[in-house]
Predict the 3D structure of the following.
Amino acid sequence: MSKSHRWLTSLGFLLAVLPLSAAPRQSAPQSPAPQVPQRGASPNAAREEGIPVLSAEVQKACGSCHTVDDKKMMTRISYRRASPENWELTIRRMVSLNNVNLTVESARSIIKYLADNNGLAPEEARAASFEAERRMIDYTYAADKNTADTCSQCHSMGRVISERRTSEEWGLLLAMHRGYYPEAAAFRARGGGPGGASADGGGQGGAPAPASADSGGAQGGAPAPADGGRQGGAPAAGGRGGGGGGASAADRARDHLARAFPLQTPEWASWSAAMRSPKIAGRWALSGYEAGKGPVYGEVTISEQPGSPDAFLTDTRFVYARTGQAVTRKSRVLVYTGFQWRGRSADAVSEETTWREVAFIGRDWREIEGRWFTGAYDEIGMDVTLRRVANDPVVLGTNVASLKRSTTGRAVRIYGANFPRTLATADIDFGQGVTVSRISSVAPEMVTVDVDVAPDARVGPRDLWLAGAAKPAALIVYDKIDGIKVLPEAGMARVGGVVFPRQLQQFEAIAMNYGADGKPDTKDDFNLGLVDVGWGLEEYTATFRDDDLQFVGELNASGLFIPNLDGPNPQRSGNRNNVGDVWAVATYTPDGSVKPLRARAHLLVTVPLYLRWDPKEIAR
């Protein structure tokens, strides 16, 4: 395998930032570019303002297909902005389909330049953060149902809204999709009128017309390269469609995207002018949450990597508050566009269990939040928030989420930073009805106290105050546990372990107090935190003589579902795969009660993801 192509199969390339090789950021000039006629468009049509490409490396690597004019505008590239992940996908496609030869170092440098200078503003990236953070969520793009239905047939809407393009560029993107995927359902519908799609997905001219800048309507005559990058050779669109009925669903989606996600926006104009390398070296207090394990608290020390203004090293120490398990990790981080944290971390001792880190750096450089994750499908992870630490005390949280009335001498650990070495009980306040009776130990990052809860304490949240620092709603005072809930309410796992990897599913059970109205799932309910429950599986009866329970896998004592092997199973009727539907069931008996509480969640165990639209390497 040649060096120029080896990076395509490496598990640690580009956004994984191992090793780091950050290219110096070059801010794009803010002076407006002259409007020039679109190639292939009518003489009266004007091209929307683009972004000059000032990197000689980008010009050299991409210039054989994307021409550069005297204003440093490169075809296609100057008229698009995208997330680092989307730029990486594009470069991978250029290498695999268009014979672009790049070294690993050059590919990293090009992605860094494009993500910085043709990237997204924080306000734009926020809406699509679930895509980069690899969250398993049920996302609905509510702005336009037709667009959501059209694009999400093949990939997440998160990839779509991670882009900004001129109206012509959105049209060319649609042309590329029609060329690559002519049999996709979205492109088989017939359209009518100028620019409509024919039954074969190309109209008589073979390529759709891009949306206009002013109305999102079609413009006739714009070229559409079949390979998505090369110039010339594509016939003009705008011929008659293959029948009546107006534009196809794909054409309407293109027009909506051109209006909703234009290249030039006030957010980008503001951010690109203010963007700079973040000054984040120093101490940061870490708080987070991992499903099934609960809250985590600790500290992250960030240091700059010499010679690379956007590259950082981190040392992280945290504990799982419920169990006291301590973890230390080290990571390498590269920051794109001045705020997009992308890193990889490993256990500081074993150097194993690699986690991917995706986070957003606040504009004031005082807070960083995002997700750290691992797993073959990025399904295991934790939400994290980092807050800059100075000299004042910081309260992060406690090891308990709730306290019951009439509790006496309950030990509570308080986590934070810069706690005073000497504390009196009067320096710690949990609010009305909760008294600190004794301080057991004091350390700069953890204080252990004994608390008493009055029998008549009011049910509800309590703010914690310690030596001038406060943590709102640090815990809940309750009178009884009314029920439990299993989260997520619907989970999914994938069989694997032979040819394809497994996708695990972590469940957790939380105790609930139903509040003043005594009814579940209302606004006055209180989440009392994780509880230790008994886990089991039950059949989800969907067919006659359903036998899924025997074959799909097992749910262990910590609520982690481990699916069975992939491939046909000769021990199962019909030699079927080990897939099916079951219930994940939790059983819990509160203190002082004889009747157990039960809750369940639906679990779908399905086949491996045989076709990955998102490269495995990016997920790592």
Summary: Residues 1-14, 16-45, 191-244, 616-620 have pLDDT under 50 and may be disordered. The chain has four domains: 3-271, 282-387, 394-478, 483-606. The chain is about 15% helix and 30% strand. Residues 224 and 571 are 53 Å apart (CA to CA).
